[in-house]
Amino acid sequence: MKFLSNEQLAFVFGLLGNIVSFMVFLAPIPTFYTIYKKKSSKGFQSIPYVVALLSAMLLLYYGVLKTNAFLIISINGIGCVIEIIYLIFYIVYASKKDKITTMSLILLVNVAAFGLVMAVTVFLLREAKRVSAVGWLCAVFNIAVFAAPLSIMRQVIRTNSVEYMPFSLSFFLTLCATMWFFYGLFTKDYYIALPNVLGFLLGIAQMILYLTYKNSGGK
User: Fold this and answer.
1) Per-residue pLDDT, 1
2) Hey, where are the domains in the chain?
3) Which of 54-58, 65-69, 145-149, 204-208 is least confident?
4) Could you tell me if 115 and 106 are in contact, meaning their C-beta atoms sit under 8 angstroms apart?
């Protein structure tokens, strides 16, 4: 029996990672359908989409700097487009105050902060150092993003309700983290692999929490 090479395994897991990540990017569609029906984004926050856009932008930049990273570039390029569409949609149906808040966040996070990252890496770092610098930044940022659901998990424990932590999303995020961990492992890209270990563990914890509290009925 002939086993697949590391390069072939990396391609398989990277391709699967693209497919699952695409499904995760599409997960907010029901939210925006609700916004469209209500003709208002009141009650919803734009911060998750601003953060998701920055994450995709950083990983896209990392993929461009790195060689042979088409699978990273492809899904994060698509992710950037999807998140921009979500934000435009949000702004169209937002109140004047929320419009100003969201556009300010976009300017601060997606324009100024990302612009600063590009300026520092292009003008202050040698080419050989850029990939590792942006890789570390992506790893740290992704760890922070993966840790964000801890507040929701705490809310589930406090309220005995899983209303705000759907099982399907937790499942696909866990699956996504698994695919990208193995992609990073087989390409020896530990900036991709290591954050997804945390993503996998937190995803498993969320699913266990869901199964524990799903029939509790809430407080």
Assistant:
1) 44
2) 6-213
3) 145-149
4) no
